[in-house]
Structures are given as C-alpha cells and as structure tokens.
Amino acid sequence: MKKVLVTGGTVFVSRYIAEYYVQKGYEVYVLNRNSRPQSKGVKLIEADRHNLSYVLKGHHFDLVFDVTAYCGEDVDLLLDGLDGFDDYFLISSSAVYPEWEKQPFSENTPTGENKIWGAYGTGKTEAEKALQKRVPNAYILRPPYLYGEGNNVYREGFVFDCANADRRFYLPKDGSMKLQFFHVRDLCRFMDVLLEKKPLQKIYNVGNEECISIKEWAELCYEAAGKKAEFVNVYDDIDQRQYFSFYDYEYALDVSAQKSLMPDTMPLKDGLKASFEWYKNNRDKVNVKPLMGFIDNNLF
Question: Same domain, yes or no, for 132 and 232?
C-alpha cells in the first residue's frame, strides 16, 4: 500500500485527488487546517502549511501531491517540513505563460507575468522554480481550466443554473472565443501514467487536445441539464466577468507530450454530464456569484 500526502484535500482538485487515491486503496493523508469536512477514508494531518512545526516528521511518503502551493515560499516550507518522500507532483497552471507569447503554448514557452492572471500566475511560476531547484525529479503539471465533479468555482454551475431556470444565455460577442478544458479525473489518470512510465520530461501541459468555443461549451452545459440553449449576444463594452464565467482571454496549450503518454481523455460532453449530476445535489458547495442579478439589472 502506497502512502500518499495531499496538500489541501477538502476542495475540488485536492479533494478529488485524495478520494481518487483512497479508491485505489492507497493510504491517503491530507494536510489542511480542518476548517471543512474531510473525505471518507483519508487521514487528517491538521496544520497550516505555513506553520508545520514537526507535524510531518516521522512520515515517509511514497507520493506527495502538492495542490495548494501558490508561491515559492509555499513549496520551500513544505519541503522543509517533510521527513522524506519518493515522488512529488506540483499542480501548477497554464497561467504561468505570458498572454503575448506564441500559441499554442508549449512546455518550452518562457514563463512570465500574464496580465490576465496577475499574481496567481507569477506565484505559480515561483513555486515551480523553487521545486525545480530542490527536487529536480519532481513532476510539474500545467492544466488549463479544470472541471468535473466537485468544482466549487462558478463556471459550468452558472450555466446549469441558467438552464434549470429556463433562462436565455447571455454570450460575450459572437461566442467564438475558445476555451480548453481538462477533467480532474484525467489529471489523476495522467499522474498514474507518469508514475508507471517515469519519463525523463518533468514538466507537462495537460488538457484536452481540442479547444471549444464558449457557445459550444454553453450548449453542452444546457444539454447536460436536458435543455436547449437560446442565446443573447452581448456586444456592449462590459467586463464579461460580470455576466459570464470566464475572462475575455483565449489561449491554447500544446498537449502533444501528454497525448503521447495518454492518448485518450474524457469527452467534454460526458464530463459535463457527470458534473451536472453532481451539481444537482451539491450546489451549496459552489461559490455562487451574482451573475444573474447583474444580467437582470444591466442586460435584460
């Protein structure tokens, strides 16, 4: 039985990873402040990662999944607190790529400040650098928009709400802006592949190979809810984050290295259907934003 440490473990990606490896029969420890309910089957190490003291001493982990590192200091403090481990995964982000670099971004694209993501992206870049300096053999994964069961960010959930309320959907411009997604289960599957094959490459863009327009994405969300979307196109000079789930920012990742190791990913249609089934009974776990109110007061 492998012994696993997951930082976080109570919200979306980190929670999904913890539960995924519990289901595989691993001994899964989660490191968090115990401010939210814990998943069934995990073992809690209650601490703030910024004040670990000796809570990790005496543990040797086969796998460390660092999901909650947002700066270099986060990585350094965790490494200082660990007694020993074999393999380390850092969940980074596509936000490390400057928006002005040539697309699709490859793993060799220089990292730097992205004006859309700001401090989040630069912090992830520093986390990567800190890890590479101290653990050169660690794996770093750079996903686009992650989605799936447990997503607490109001993205597909917003569209599901619109569909359930039989509302028309307000779409930025002509709806042609492209997005790239990756189901959180495929993230876990790919980490399994890396553990099995141990490739020399250490940094991977991860995601579905194909991007999708925001109109097509919204249509799939409505379809998952058993509805058909009717659109209103918004051409006004309004920040689309006031009435839509994503920034006005189109980008694409080159995921050919991932595909060479794991050719198949979950079809977006299937992933959104599973997301809807989860969302129906778990809306209270999502950070709902007042997008509908803005639409009704400003666009309706």
Answer: no
